[in-house]
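Researcher: Sequence of Patched domain-containing protein 1 follows. Predict its structure.
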Amino acid sequence: MVACNVVDRLVSTLFRKLGREIADKPGYFVIVPILVAALFGSGWQRIRYEDDPEYLFTPTNGRSKVERRIVETLFPMNSSQNFDLGRITRPGHFGRVIVVPRDGETVLRGEIFDEIDELNMIVQNLTIDYEDRLWRYEDICARKLGGHCFQNDVLDFKSRIRRMEYDPNVTMTFPLMETPNRVYFLGGALGGVVTDENGVIVNCSAANLMYYLDWSTPRAKKMARIWEALFLETVEALNDQFDTISLAMFVSNTLTKELQKNTQSVVPFLSLTLFIMLAFSIVTCMMADWVTSKPWLGVIGCISSIMGVGAAFGLIMYFNLEFIGINLAAPFLMLVQSYHHIRDAPFLLLSDDNDTQAILHAST
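Model: Prediction complete. Tokens:
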């Protein structure tokens, strides 16, 4: 039985000595840590927030990025002169709309494409004000060889789709649609497609419209971002105006904004969680009597965790490291860890009467 208490007695002895040192020299154990935490915490003034999904979730020297650099070196593409969707290696700037019929039937109907065509005309006429000039989509679009803007090929079949409703001999094939003038690839324009054994479309659940913008220069990127914001606002407002179609919109920075929303959704709960954790820590440090109860131990444990998190992140920011949204989970993890230390501390310290006296001496 004595052998089983060796570890407990050793730990109790060490804590007794530590308690006496803290009681004799409180300045070293209280004031100095606060000053050090304040010094390191000042690094928050150098915060550099990073929210680029590609940078955050892909390796910097990954094979895909190496191969992309090779492709861009050997086959450069300028979005203002020779844009080609099949050769694109970066998302660039764009607006995207996915159109779904409200009744859940096929999208290949005349009434559906009437509203899709109306939607397309509205988007084409979106106008932004930049450098005291009005810019439409055709002024800032990504251009193919010949100076033409990127077009949605599926809109060329509006008249054909009307004939399909009353003439069973008029059909469309997928993913390739051959006409006397050209061959269309509809793989990226239609979604939820059901075909027969001959590749003829039987049913189609959605249509996809893309509006690519020029991003070849910093100035073009600024205009593209302004247009994207107007695009989102406009399409979202149109979603309630159309009778037969429902719209889902997407732009180049939508993923980034969604990640930011996830981060911001945690912020309101920080203060509430801190209050709950503080109350919980105090309660778990309470004993059956006031002599052995240590409510302030719970408070100090939470405060020390907060100071530790602030000091650690501040020091890291002095080394010019980026701050990302997931770091907001760190205070929660630190509080949970501090709770475990706080919860176990009274049982480690109060192993005999001599230990109790040492703790009481330290607390005074």
